[in-house]
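Progress report, Aim 2. The chain analyzed during this reporting quarter is listed below.
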Amino acid sequence: MSALAGEAPGATRGRRLRVAVLGCSGSIGTQTLDVCRRHADRLEVVALSVHGSTDALVAAAREFGAAHACVTDEGHARDAILDELPEGCELTRGDGALADLVALDDVDCVVNALVGVAGMRAGWRALGAGKVLAYANKESIIVAGDILMPLARPGRLIPVDSEHSAIFQCLAGAPTHDVHRIWLTCSGGPFHGMTRAQLAQVTSADALAHPTWLMGAKITIDSATLMNKGFELLEAHHLFAVGIDDIRVLVQRQSRIHSMVEFADGSTLAQLGPSDMRIPIQYALSYPDRWETPCERIDWCHEQPITFGEADEETFGCLALAREAGRVGGTMPCVLNAANEVANAAFRRGACTFLDIERIVSVAIEAHEAQRVRDLDQLEEVDLWARDVARRALVDVVS
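Predicted structure tokens for the chain:
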């Protein structure tokens, strides 16, 4: 059976599941709050965090009556709007306070909807405290999977990404040693079928026009470069204990099949459904139960044909870089993630081209000698080093 499988506490034991939502103002965070709103009889929002979106924090805290709120950006930690938090709501500030928030006694489940490596220490604290970690912060597993996964007790680490939720569901009750291959599906993004010459001309606005999913800006750019799919490949490697080369990326343009698992006997199980992130979010909160759908159902009799294709790792080199970083292992995925965050942000503000993202990440990877992962402090040092290398590479590629 999958090492992640097991019974989760909370709502399944006859009381409401007490939920902390980290990054409650972002795409996953707001959709999580919508699920909590729809299932107020089963879910209780007790803690919320934002980086700097204090207006959204106050609005959510007032709506749900949250007992705890955290602002991690010191520049917004004393915004006047925070005086309007509901009476009795405890306000804390800074990254350290965020890590303490997830370990509170009145939190059963932590939804980690933070973007980037910022969510790594909070995820570590949540697992160490025995909380259910429903996470969309894939960078935590990519960078620190070697030290996070041993902390994951059965039923306490539930993936929120649609692809990994799909794999998790397909593996329910199945021994992982019977897995032959994971088929990680991919929409192909807005530039599917383009050549590198065409990619050299695309803009940030072009890349933000994802054909299927509504996501934050950073992840949408990662989806356009296919780096996001590379991250998901590394994530699946850690979560489901399968080899890097036993995971194939399958282009499925309609985004109806969210991923598949092929077993040793030739059988393949797939999870299908609407392209709505509230479904995997809700499943992470309801597991092992299933609640009424939060979105419109699909009438499969009237669906358009579903197509399949292979991801082009030569044209979209970020996917190939991620696969290679996974093969090397150790601290190399940390470098991959940090350099990509720098390059992704530079592209969004118009400081480099689309293809420069791949070039900048490649420079950082080539400059790094991978080490065995020891602890979070080491990873944070490697992260800072890689960002510095990426910033210098950015100057070189645009000069």
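Residues 329-399 form a domain with the Rna Polymerase Sigma Factor; Chain: A fold (CATH 1.10.1740.10). The chain is about 40% helix and 15% strand. These observations will guide the mutagenesis work planned for the next reporting period.
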